[in-house]
Amino acid sequence: MKFTLATVFALVAAANAGLVSRTAVTYSFCSTGATDPLKISSVDLSPYPAVPGNSITLSAVGTSTATVNSGASAVVTVSTGGFTLWSATYNVCTDLTINATCPIAPGTYSLSKTITVPSILPAGTYTMQVSAKNADGSELTCITAPLNVA
Ligand SMILES: *[C@@H]1O[C@H](CO)[C@@H](O)[C@H](O)[C@H]1NC(C)=O
């Protein structure tokens, strides 16, 4: 076999395809987030970096001091330099996988959501913001994290 650069790339791609990396990402609270009733304690993205057109699963663990009621919503925004490239709104009680059902009493819960990475995103590092509001419109949480797109 002639060992060309293309072969090397193909081998690296094949090796990467076999790996499903679950990566803990470093996140920060939005300006309002530190005093919110839902405190996120970990965020994982899998696979990471994200691949345009493929699915990515966001998993988080959080502790809430508020009861989360039916009608709570979560907005995921992907932006760069202040420009929003993609945004989606989810119903917390019906669109997210949580180890509880609404109304969710105060406590610690794990939540996850699998979404399709927008295929329009060129490779790069973006800012992902996840903000959630309770049914009455009060903020539950707001975090930002870097989103690496391969
Ligand atoms: C839900 O998951 C969290 C985080 O893993 C855990 O601390 C909690 O005990 C779980 N609660 C229930 C009701 O399973």
TrEMBL record:
GO terms assigned for molecular function: sterol binding
Leader peptide range in chain numbering: 1-17
Residue ranges of every copy of the MD-2-related lipid-recognition domain listed in the record: 27-147
Keywords carried by this UniProt record: Lipid transport, Signal, Transport
Keyword rRNA processing on entry: no
A UniProt-annotated Pfam family: E1_DerP2_DerF2
InterPro entries with a match to the protein in the record: GM2-AP_sf, Ig_E-set, ML_dom, NPC2-like
Subunit structure: Monomer.
Role, per record: Catalyzes the intermembrane transfer of phosphatidylglycerol and phosphatidylinositol.
Family to which the UniProt record says this protein belongs: Belongs to the NPC2 family.
Protein name stated in the entry: Phosphatidylglycerol/phosphatidylinositol transfer protein
Species whose genome carries this gene: Hesseltinella vesiculosa
